[in-house]
Amino acid sequence: MTESTSPPSASRVNHVDALPPGTRLAEFEIQELLGVGGFGMVYKAFDHSLLRPVAIKEFMPSALAGRSQGQSLWVRSSSDQQAFQAGLASFMGEARLLAQFDHPSLVKVFRFWEANNTAYMVMPLYTGMTFKQARALMRTPPPEAWLRKMLWSVLGALRVLHEGNTLHRDISPDNIFLQYNGPPVLLDLGAARHAINEQGRKHTAVLKVNYAPIEQYADGDEELRQGPWSDLYSLAAVVHGCLCNDTPLPATLRSIRDRMVSFSRVAKTVKRQFGVDYSASFVAAIAQSLALRPEDRPQNIDAFLLTMGMTSPPEGVEHFDFRLDLGGVWTEPSDRPVPARVIPSVDVTATPRRGADLEALTYRSARPSVHDGGAVVQEAPDTVAAEGPDTVATDMADTVFIDVGDSVFEAPAATEASSEPPAPP
After folding, report:
1. Burial letters 21-32, b for 16+ CB under 10 A, else e
2. Is the pLDDT of residue 407 over 70?
């Protein structure tokens, strides 16, 4: 698979059930619809009390409910009532959970409440892009030092969740957000999505199949229990896919016959093709976390960090700038979409190349974004098909990215460096 490197074209997001601009929800005034996912709508709004722009996420499982006259939702069928209520309760539970945490790499919830047979969550607007989008703008796989800084922030967020007896269960390149002004942010717990699925609504996108560990397919099986090791598998799969510039093999296929290229081989191939070197401790931590059997992985974040030799913050992590720290690896996106742009992928079957032979690397054409009903929908073959887009994006000059309608990112015309360091894990 190749990832789209073209910035989305300008297009306003529309939906028949969206709240119109000017709608008041308490002290918040809706300004525009930013994105629609299978389980929610996200709006840009203005907080008239604190005089600041915010993002408001509304619980809106489009397969189960619609908008009646006014602001209230109605459930389409009595048979869907139980699933709707389960999703609503989990939406509120996720908001309550995030509101009690205060970590720079976790989405902050300012306020949440129930009304109009639905619920709302008020969040900040983040500026930057997803890890998936950033990888598409890299000339080569990122260096180890860059990955260690990114991982430190994400692991810090995961530690907070794990200490609160919560698993993320949905880590993927789409759910790691790289801020222009601040540390990476871990997105989308997906609580409502999982709750609705548990009520038998199997049409929804619950797993990122290329990043989910085998135990997520056997929820409730005592021999395949989920735990911190499950999130570590997903995070390691993100790193594996980053180096390959391709999606990892799904755990379900690996369980039948494991044909996924080992991470040690991937690292050696990247060094041979691009001259990017990775330490033995880094390779060992990622490789162990990708073990198919849960008991063969590091069992918690401390064990992972110990294997990686990263028991203290990486040097310079407090000033991490995901673009600047990449140096010549980073390419700024052009002002216009370039559908024909190509990005290098790692050819693990190739024989060693030397000297001028490095010019003959394997390239794959980037796939442009797909336009769907006025919204720009980024194709995501690494997810289970859902009713409705998984990712919605608008113009890169004023960009808003929403992952399953759960978080909002708005790119400004200019940014400043952040002075606030990320909290250590």
Report:
1. eeeebeebbbbe
2. no
Domain ranges of the chain: 130-390
DSSP 142-153: PPHHHHHHHHHH
Rounded distance, CA 170 to CA 193, Å?
A: 10
- The dihedral over CA atoms of 148, 152, 157, 162, expressed in degrees to the nearest 10, equals 90
**Residue 39 · residue 193 · CB < 8 Å:** yes
Q: How far is CA 325 from CA 97, 101, 141, 245, in A?
A: 33, 28, 13, 19
CB 345 within 8 A of CB 364: yes
- In CATH terms, 130-390 corresponds, of 3.40.50.970, 1.10.150.20, 1.10.510.10, 1.10.275.10, to 1.10.510.10
Q: Is 129 left (phi over 0), alpha (psi -120 to 50) or beta?
A: beta
Higher pLDDT, 375 or 174: 174
Q: Is 57 annotated as a binding residue?
A: yes
Token reading at 179? 């801020």
Count of CB atoms situated within 10 Å of the CB of 361: 15
Rounded Cα distance between 99 and 108, Å, is 6
CA angle 307, 312, 315 (to 5 degrees): 110
Query: Are 118 and 58 contacting, i.e. CB atoms less than 8 angstroms apart?
Result: yes
Specify the residue for token string 């063969």.
296
| CB-CB contact of 382 with 2 (8 Å) | no
- CA distances 228 to 5, 266, 299, 308, Å, are 32, 25, 6, 16
List CB contacts of 327: < 8 A, sequence separation 6 or more.
none
Question: Which residue type occupies 302?
Answer: D
pLDDT surpasses 90 at 322: yes
74-112 per-position pLDDT tens digit: 788 888 788 888 889 988 988 888 888 889 999 899 999
For the stretch 52-80, what's the b/e string if a residue is b when 16 or more beta carbons lie within 10 angstroms of its beta carbon? eebbbbbbbbbbbbebeeebebebeeeeb
pTM for this prediction: 0.73
How many angstroms separate the CA atoms of 385 and 40, rounded? Answer: 16
The enclosing H or E element of 265 equals: helix 263-274
Q: Is 6 in contact with 368 (CB distance < 8 Å)?
A: yes
Q: Are 411 and 138 in contact (CB under 8 A)?
A: no
Longest dimension (CA), the chain: 68
Rounded to 5 degrees, what are φ and ψ at 287? -60, -45
